[in-house]
């Protein structure tokens, strides 16, 4: 997600449309806000769970939850980055296409999102 932000922010400052940077347009600003909040909320959740794990409080539902949230948000952020770059988001000169493929891989490779939801649901049902 951070890599997407690192690509998009300079691009929307530099790319002009109708005589002004596209970052001045409300639609782009909304996408930037969504990308930023997805990044920060995922980062905060991961840090909180990592701190608990460091303190010996390992909770399977939170471990699964961090991967689920971060992986799905990473895919959303990569898609938003491609939208912000327009046609340039699809060409190989920009790494956004690769970032999208990498993000989607996190949803699948380390256990699908459905499996993560299953783990969380079982833990909630079992303990609450």
UniProtKB/TrEMBL annotation:
Domain of life from the UniProt record:
Eukaryota
Q: What is the lineage of its organism?
A: Eukaryota, Viridiplantae, Streptophyta, Embryophyta, Tracheophyta
Identify this protein by name: Putative ovule protein
The species this protein belongs to is Solanum chacoense (Chaco potato)
Q: Which InterPro entries match?
A: Acyl-CoA_DH_CS, AcylCo_DH-like_C, AcylCo_DH/oxidase_C
Pfam families per UniProt: Acyl-CoA_dh_1 (PF00441)
Q: Key word Zinc present in the record?
A: no
Q: In this protein, which residues make up the domain named Acyl-CoA dehydrogenase/oxidase C-terminal?
A: 1-124
Instruction: Report the PANTHER family cross-referenced here.
Output: 2-METHYLACYL-COA DEHYDROGENASE, MITOCHONDRIAL (PTHR43884:SF27), ACYL-COA DEHYDROGENASE (PTHR43884)
Keywords attached to this Swiss-Prot or TrEMBL record, sorted alphabetically, are: Flavoprotein
